[in-house]
Amino acid sequence: MPSTDELLKFLSNKKGIESYLDNLDESQDAKSLDNYLAYLLKEKEAKRSDIIKKTDLNATHAYQIFNGTRGASRDSLLQLALAFKLSLQETGRLLFYGEAASLYAKNKRDGIIIFCILNHKDLQETNELLYELDEETISHLSQDR
Fold first, then answer.
1. Is the pLDDT score of 27 beyond 70?
2. What would the 3-class secondary structure string for the chain be?
3. For residues 50 and 28, what is the distance between their CA atoms, to the nearest angstrom?
């Protein structure tokens, strides 16, 4: 899902209005977690199997999340966000579509996770920093509903 700035770049780009409308339509079609994950795979030109390998999720469970047959916990969504190397805004959308609480900068653990996202840390680096700062790691709580 493109940000407002990205959509403005499409408008100013020589690609024309069609490119802008295509991106706007795709981003607004998400409406569910599995659709947003499919959109991210396409947008990031990523393979589902490669993203799943970068998480600590059970592969079967992760495929069920991607297929929309199983919900995901907040920490599972954060594992996916880190695997995709999502921006903070994209992570917020992923949490929204996964019906999970937003990251909150005034919460110590969330603040550390926000720092890691903004600094392009992977899951292992994020978990290590959380552990060093006496917070629960992301992978620790990845039991899903």
1. no
2. CCCHHHHHHHHHCCCCHHHHHHHHHHHHCCCCHHHHHHHHHHHCCCCHHHHHHCCCCCHHHHHHHHHCCCCCCHHHHHHHHHHHCCCHHHHHHHHHHCCCCCCCCCCHHHHHHHHHHHCCCCHHHHHHHHHHCCCCCCHHHCCCC
3. 25
Q: How far apart are CA 31 and CA 25, in angstroms?
A: 12
Q: Which residue has the higher pLDDT, 64 or 21?
A: 64
| Residues contacting 48, CB < 8 A, separation 6+ | 41, 63, 66
* CB contact at 8 A, 51 and 84: yes
Work out the percent of the chain whose per-residue pLDDT is above 90.
Answer: 72
Question: Tell me, what amino acid is at 111?
Answer: G
